[in-house]
Design goal:
177 residues; alpha+beta; 2 domains
Length: 177
Amino acid sequence: MAAVQELGAMIERFETDNRRRRRISMVAVPLGAVAACLGVLMLLALDESASGGTRIFPSLVCGLGLGAFGVGCWQGWLSFTRPDEVFTLYEGGLVHSYAEKSWAIGWHEITKVTDNGRDNALHRALGGDISYYIKFRAPVGGRRGMSITSLTRDADWLGETVRQAAEHGNNPRPDAP
């Protein structure tokens, strides 16, 4: 793990919107629970002779409900375990901070940057339309990677900048005065 002093000049700080995480959690958990229960009730209401085609809609409702419930629980967990989450971009790497802890990662410590985001209405609502996963060569602070999602300000620009620096050696530079 690199030291912050070794990373050079600071370029910019990118805060993560924890309020939005909590809002997603407060909406997705109850709606997901209700939808999952409705799906299960619809499945139970079908008689044993029902064809596979009639089970598709109740199964879909149940699956979407469970998915929304899971995402809501995860975002709620993150909102409490990662207060004040910030990514700070430097010439020589990235610092990820939350809960009064920081991890400095040099560009040479990053193996791969993958864009897992899907730009559709559901992913935008749940904060997953932009989702970069940054994989480390060796564990840093016990972690093998980290994620930058659309809940972080300018996440798309930050993710692409990290990718360019780590994979192609195009290190970001501070603006000249």
